[in-house]
Structures are given as C-alpha cells and as structure tokens.
Design brief:
Elements (H helix, E strand, L loop, with lengths): L1 H13 L21 H27 L1 H4 L6 H14 L11 H8 L8 H16 L14 H20 L13 E2 L4 E2 L1 H37 L10
Antiparallel strand pairs: 1-2
C-alpha cells in the first residue's frame, strides 16, 4: 500500500502543472452590432473551423496518398484546405454539391479525389449551411436550433460512416483512429466530438434563449398589475 502511494505521488509530481489559460478575443468594432448570442454563435463557428483544419492535418498525416492528389507536399495541401475554409470557397472535386450531398459524395467508396479535403470541406459547408449560410452574425441574425441540432447529428453519422465503410478494395475510407495492441490514439475521435459538442451546446442555448424570451414576455403581463403605481393623494 505504501509503495503504491509513493508511486502515485511520484507520478503526480511529474505531471505538468500548467495547461494554458482561457483567453477572450480582442475587441473589434463589429462587436458593437452583435448581441451575446451572436458572439457565441460566431465563437463556436471559429472554433469548429479550427477543429476541421486540425482534423485535416491529422488525416493527411495518416493518409499521405490523399494529400498527394492535391499538392506536392502535405503542408501545401493543408494550406489549400485552410484557405478554402477561411474563404468558404467551393471544393472543385465535389462537383458543385453542397452540405450533406457533398458529404455523401466524399464518403462514397467510388470517390477518387482527395477524400480528406472533400470530407473536411463538405463538413464545413454542412455546418455553415446549418447556420443559415453565415459565418458571422449580427443583430437580427439568428440561427435555427433544429438545423444546428441536425448538423450535429449529421457529423455523428459522417463519423460513423468514416469508421465503418470500406472502399472498393475493402479498405477503410480513411485511416483515422489508431487502435492496436501497442498503440491507442483516439485524438481524431476527440476532436470530432468537440465539434459535435459545440453544435449541441449552441442548439440548446438558442432553444433556451427563445423559450426564456416567451416566458419573460408572459411574466411581464402577469406582473404588470402588481407593478402599477398606487395613488398617493
């Protein structure tokens, strides 16, 4: 028992004591025409697009044959994907298809193009479409919580397909998670889970916001008689 305690103490002493700190974005003038819900939606959009770029990098590292279909180096292929995401540019090999239709093509066993780029770009377009086609949000802009919720479910379905479907040679569409007797790497699954979690959070927040707006309106009518001023003479 004593040896086990000593071992745990030693492990704890070697563990990193700093894991970074939370930081807010720098103030920008556009915030003056944004509500709190606008800022939350935009922050989630930015975080999800960063996750997609990170996922593209992870997938390219495990599937080098894919980036070779797009560029001479992995770094160049990743830069092209990142630039396309930042500018919402269409990915030509997807033949003009959008959102879930593009996802279906990217996850088709017969797809011959850069599957990593197609999958990431189709996922990005699915998320943007669920936000009403917007990446930035201002007063009078709102999102449909059901569409956001559906996007989260679509991401779950896409992840399941990627993990289970085989190509025409009987091989996985893309190597993602690594589960072997000597190695266990689920970083792809975790990062994709972050995207799904953020979408679910936004859907719940938006639904609650609309619900509370209705309740607050009703409360104002119920409380109005109680808040009326009384005569003093």
């Amino acid at each position: 028992m004593g040896a086990a305690c000593l071992l745990l103490t030693a492990c704890a002493s070697d563990a990193p004591t700093s894991h970074g700190e939370v930081r807010g974005a720098k103030f920008e003038s556009e915030e003056l025409i944004q509500s709190e819900s606008n800022r939350i939606a935009q922050a989630i959009m930015v975080a999800n697009q960063r996750s997609l770029v990170l996922l593209a990098d992870k997938l390219y590292r495990r599937n080098p044959a894919e980036w070779r279909k797009t560029a001479a180096t992995r770094e160049a292929a990743l830069a092209k994907v990142e630039s396309s995401i930042a500018q919402s540019l269409p990915w030509v090999p997807l033949n003009g298809l959008r959102d879930v239709t593009a996802l279906s093509l990217a996850l088709s066993p017969d797809f011959k193009g850069d599957r990593v780029a197609a999958f990431i770009m189709a996922s990005n377009d699915t998320i943007i479409t669920a936000h009403g086609g917007r990446r930035e949000f201002y007063y009078l802009d709102g999102v449909d919580p059901q569409h956001i919720y559906n996007a989260a479910r679509n991401m779950e379905i896409a992840l399941w397909i990627l993990n289970t479907r085989k190509d025409t040679r009987g091989q996985p569409l893309l190597l993602a998670n690594e589960l072997t007797p000597d190695s266990r790497n689920l970083s792809f699954e975790r990062e994709f889970g972050k995207i799904i979690g953020r979408l679910d959070l936004l859907a719940t927040f938006t639904t609650e916001r609309y619900r509370r707006a209705v309740i607050s309106y009703a409360q104002s009518w119920v409380a109005a008689p109680l808040l009326a001023f009384l005569p003093v003479r």
